[in-house]
Amino acid sequence: MTVGLFQTNLLHQYEKLAAIRFGMGMMLFRYDKQMAHSSCADLFRFAHQPVSLIEKLWAPIVIGTLNLPPEKASAQVFLHTMRLIFLQDKKHSSLLFPKVGLSDLLINPALDYLSSHGCGIKYGQTIQTIKAGNNLVYVDTGKGNDVFDALIFAGNYHDVSFLPEEIARTIPEIKYSPITNAYFWVDKKIVGLPICGFIGTSLEWCFTKPTQYAAELLACTKSAADDIIKKDNDEITDIFWKDIKRSFPNSDAKLLRSVIIKEKRATPLLDAALQLHRPKTKSIIPNFYLAGDLVQNGLPMTIEGAVRNGQKAAHEVLKNID
Ligand SMILES: Cc1cc2nc3c(=O)[nH]c(=O)nc-3n(C[C@H](O)[C@H](O)[C@H](O)COP(=O)(O)OP(=O)(O)OC[C@H]3O[C@@H](n4cnc5c(N)ncnc54)[C@H](O)[C@@H]3O)c2cc1C
Prior knowledge:
This protein is an alpha+beta fold.
């Protein structure tokens, strides 16, 4: 990260030095204790980070990783994530672009792995209740009952009414932070880079690729989209397209087609309060484990967090099986 910081001409010398000072503080765990229950905005004030540096560097990283503005995002999660990305081997901060969709990348290999290891997979069944007793766990799907020696629950946590009461009680209430995505097909290349970050605009990131019908397809993202999600699709198209034209003033590219996708429940609102109350892998019932992205691992709620929690829960089960 230090090399990148010194190379950029986006930051003044004093901003680069402040960022490096902050990085050193992170490396030495200087902020963790005092900022455990604080927001990222509090953290940046505490670490004397210049406002201009927050706007140009820290806020885009916070919004991109936590889908929240610095005023709301948990400082603890931010610090942990930054250390994992930037303060380890270089490969941890590499951007990888998959050549296939997420189903082929993650889902199908996972299903193949489960099938080849003798795991049964049931589709189209909604769990109605899960009960625990006599060192066993009972799952009722309305189409039949299953009994297990141990169970890892990795469902959604916004409705936990079907979980055993003593576990449901430990799950915090979850609020959500929205994301708005815009897909723009244009007649001439305008961005010309596979990925582009924007500062001082409504949209934040743009991923591009050529298609059969357009010179460039732009996939534009606005995270922490509380304000923009309330607007209608035409207005959002107009705002984002103006942002792009303003950022590339020499281009005369025209918009051929646009699609706006609003995701109200894109990610749980991971503020300091939720971070403090995320449940742990081991529940209050000895043979009942929790997984999924909500479970505490210090990370934002993403696929990576869910995978890590699944692995951890599986190891716990294996440790406790006779
Ligand atoms: C629009 C959007 C974009 C995202 N983009 C990214 C991204 O780019 N990168 C990233 O890392 N993360 C992204 N995320 C977050 C990511 O999807 C989640 O972090 C991840 O899917 C969490 O995995 P999970 O296994 O905990 O839960 P889920 O993937 O939500 O899986 C829970 C499963 O449990 C099932 N279930 C729930 N209740 C029951 C029941 N009663 N009976 C039976 N089954 C039940 C659900 O149907 C679901 O299949 C995005 C999320 C959204 C909504």
